[in-house]
Design goal:
This protein is mainly α. It has 2 domains: about 425 residues, MFS general substrate transporter like domains (Growth Hormone, Chain: A, Up-down Bundle); about 70 residues. The chain contains 22 helices and no strands. α4 packs antiparallel against α20, α7 runs antiparallel to α18 and α14 crosses α17. The longest helix is centred in the middle third of the chain and has 32 residues.
Length: about 500
Amino acid sequence: MAKRPRLSFWQIWNMSFGFLGIQFGYALQNANVSRIFESLGASVESIPILWIAAPVTGLIIQPIIGHMSDKTWTRLGRRRPYFLVGAIMASAALFIMPNSGALWIAAGMLWIMDASINISMEPFRAFIGDMLPSEQRTLGFSMQSFFIGIGAVVGSALPYILANWFGVSNEPVGSSPIPPTVKWSFYLGGIVFLSAVLVTVFTTREYTPEQIASFNEHDASKNFGHSDNHYGRDISARMFSSTGMWFLLSGLIIALVVWQLNFETEVYILAGILALFGLIFFISALLRSAGRTKSGVVEIMTDLLNMPKTMGQLAVVQFFTWLALFSMWIYTTPAVTAFHYHADSATSELYNEGANWVGVLFGAYSLFAALFAFLLPVLARRISRKLTHLVSLVVGGMGLISMYFITDPTLLLLSMAGVGLAWASILAMPYAMLTGALPQEKMGIYMGIFNFFIVLPQILAATILGAITKHLFHGEAIYALVFGGVSMIIAGFFTLRVTDKDDVFAFLKRRL
């Protein structure tokens, strides 16, 4: 048995550097895809359903990649092959996306781009659990938050920088409705994405399977970490079938309500996803009955039903958190351009000016997140990770709500300071609390399953927010941001229910 060695600051820096490129790509996507969709003729009400590609691909890709990376070992390592393949694919997609000639092509490219980014991103979360001892994991995830913040600052503000500093045209040229500022931003994003991931791939060496097994034995002998985990419990075919029946019935009930009350057809997608989960559980039951317990589908669904208690508690926090974030990402552009800039056309100069400012605002909250990233470990040591996350989410929710009361677009930077604190914590604290509750040999798959509780609220938002904005908010996107703020505050208070098994001070108290 051996304890995981502590890594130096610069080793943690190098192993996290790839997130600079990953978030650069995500920032370009988050700040500009709604703009691309509107430029290609999408209505405000249809934007959420077009965005559904992002969460659905994460829902499918991340558990599969996590499961595969847990079982991978090559000359390049365990996680790094996925960093590299995903980066190559995502970089290519970033070059193609802004050249979409029609709305359906742009929507399809979003599927491809988001899937590629997920292939790179998911193993990075498990990488921290593989490489760092428990006392350094908060720092490791905070380092990722720092690079995410830096990448997002430049990525989000790049169209504004190109237009105002380098004179690149911010209005459509020729037959393409996409401005050159957006096109060149995506091209540069593709280069940065691949380059940053290559830094991590070539400067970091992963532990061998034998070393990781020794580290896991040491952690188990110290009873540190995932003592609430019941991983290994046998899941019968009957349990798979009964769980599948609940999912299938939920999907059918939602579909029936939509049909009877004549709701927007987008909600059928939510019903279909629930029914799909039910079908996967039924397939798992058949495979389990046939004795094929080593099938990837059976293993993934078994791990889902065997999730640790801490993970289930964090799932509720993540649900409300990411419902808020998705509301912000898809509605900030239409909200700011309409409510603060009073633009009445997606092709007007005023609209493009407002859309560029949204890029600056997204860059601002990312910059604030980068600045707060190294404050969070200090705060967590003083008041615990749970309370740190609670404070951060409440402040972030108040920041979103304040956008309704602030009329000067420049002062929205104050709102973004609150969102930035929340974003820094969202990227670090849930993962730091989760990692200690997970069996090390299943780090990848559980990080992928944890993504369910990020993407399911996004799918819910994509299917119902359009209808809510249209009927309840009367097409006023600014109210969707207020809705997101309230949701984020609710998430903060649910953090108080989380059992943080890997909190160093909580652990010492238990031992004493």
